[in-house]
Amino acid sequence: METNAAAPPLRGTHDGWHRLPLASLDFETTGVDPRTDRILSYALIDGPVAVSGLVDAGVPIPPASAEVHGLTAAMLTGEPTPSRVLAGILEWVESLIDRGVGLVVFNAAYDLTMLRAEARRNGLREPDWSRLLVVDPYVVDWGIARGSLGRRRLVDVAAYYGVPIESAHDAMCDARAARDVAVELGARHPHVGSLALGELMVQQRRWFADRVAEWNSYARTSGRPVDDPTGWPLAA
């Protein structure tokens, strides 16, 4: 396993999920709580098709969030409402499940939990989440390096693997970068890339649980809230 490396390993010639068509999803939101915050913009990539848009969530946007992604209430006024947008996104996720296409989501426990919360808030039909094949570069990167490479936001992991991000915190740019990072992870780490997507799901759950166990050990000694080790790819 390549940890503490000055540079990532070279791409291999092995086959695997990284050579399959992969979809990607990203949201920009009002905040950091996936259960209560709201989706403001979205990007969906499915093969050569890329769709993005804005959402008029009808709620205030905290200045700290607007500073990150640049979206303001004035910019979103008159855009489609959540129920109109989310119905299409949920149908698209269902189609990925039916086709067996892997969905790349950086920090899936946030974005997918938020999508589920929005679906329930708006009374929309949910896909069968248990059948969704997720590739989470945030979790995979941690599993490979075991947290030894320092801060690993999308911009950090992308820079490490030589993946450009034209505009960080733009949903489409982030969705493209996440998918490209996922491909690099699979191509450069054969023990990960050679797994079937179903096997990768199992491994990602283990890595997530390990990462949470490390965090919880620290949290208990510092008075911080602990996380749920089973909360991937959706929080309980």
UniProtKB/TrEMBL annotation:
Keyword Membrane: no
Stretches that traverse the bilayer: none
A Gene Ontology cellular-component term: cytosol
Entry-linked SMART domains: EXOIII
MF terms in GO: 3'-5' exonuclease activity; nucleic acid binding
Residues annotated as domain Exonuclease: 21-191
InterPro entries tied to this protein: Ribonucl_H, RNaseH-like_sf, RNaseH_sf
Name the UniProt record assigns to this protein: 3'-5' exonuclease
Lineage of the organism: Bacteria, Bacillati, Actinomycetota, Actinomycetes, Propionibacteriales
